[in-house]
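Risk register update: the risk of archive-format incompatibility is retired. Evidence:
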Amino acid sequence: MAWRCTVSNLRVVTSLCLHAPMPWQPLHRTVRITWPLRNLSTGRPALSARKFTDKHEWVMVENGIGTVGISNYAQEALGDVVYCGLPEIGTKLNQLDEFGALESVKAASELYSPLTGEVTDINKALADNPGLVNKSCYGEGWLIKMTIDNPAEVDELMDEEGYEKFLKSIED
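Archived output:
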């Protein structure tokens, strides 16, 4: 005797095979579960990958807000950062506008906006601890957050692979 049961909403197929019980022959049970495939598409991702400028700033966009910082290459070239001059919240910037400066024991460097938008936040922790730029340039050492007025500008920037190629070209 054999039973076959199908539950379609879970796509579970259970087979139970019973044989005449014999002392040397156990009951056999086979279960196979197949989960349904789901394809979800939400359009443009809410979190984009980090993008870079040729002036060594990076931006990562999340829900229409760009977080801006400097690259590892830039912070290594600067050395120990001792001062961060950042804009006021509400400052409107065009792409490649100068928005501040970093000073280190070796040099000073201007900061340039990777995108067009308005400054919505600055990293206040850098006032007391500018060394965060060196310690964690892609994390706690971010500089500003800004709105993105022209999302097409993001696509014009280099991805990480393109930025690595750019660095190799300027080092040669």
